[in-house]
Amino acid sequence: MKGDFTILPFLFWLVKLTSSLYKGKFMERIRLKLKAYDHRVLDRTVAAIVEAVKRTGADIRGPVPMPTKIKRYTVLKSPHINKDSREQFEIRIHARMLDIVAATPDTVDSLTKLDLAPEVSVEVRAMGK
C-alpha cells in the first residue's frame, strides 16, 4: 500500500489551485476520492478533512462510502503435487468520496497544511462552473 499511492500529485494540484484562486478564478466544486486498505485509517483521514473544510466555512457533501472492491487470489499450498490443496487470500480496498462546494483560498490552504496518513490515496478533481 505504501508504494502504491503517493501524495505528491495532490500537493502539486493544491498549489496550482491556490494560485488560480488568488488570481480571481473560482472553483465551484472540488471532488476528493480517498482509497485505503484499512477502513479505520480512511475514516480518520476523512474526519480530519471534513473538520478542516468546515472550519474555513466551505460547504461539504459527504463523505459518501463507495463500494468496497475485493481482489481475491488463490494459490497452491504445495509447489509440486496436491492441486486440491489451495489457499485463498483477499485484499479489500475501501473508498470514500467528498465534494467541497464553494472552496475559498482558506479552504485550499487548510487542505495543504493537513497531515494525511501515508496509507491513504487521494485523487483530486476540480470541477468549474
UniProtKB/TrEMBL annotation:
GO terms for biological process: translation. Residues 31-125 form the Small ribosomal subunit protein uS10 domain. PROSITE patterns: RIBOSOMAL_S10. GO terms for molecular function: structural constituent of ribosome; tRNA binding. Keywords: Ribonucleoprotein, Ribosomal protein. Belongs to the universal ribosomal protein uS10 family. HAMAP family: Ribosomal_uS10. Part of the 30S ribosomal subunit. This is Small ribosomal subunit protein uS10. It comes from Campylobacter upsaliensis JV21. The lineage of its organism: Bacteria, Pseudomonadati, Campylobacterota, Epsilonproteobacteria, Campylobacterales. The gene is rpsJ.
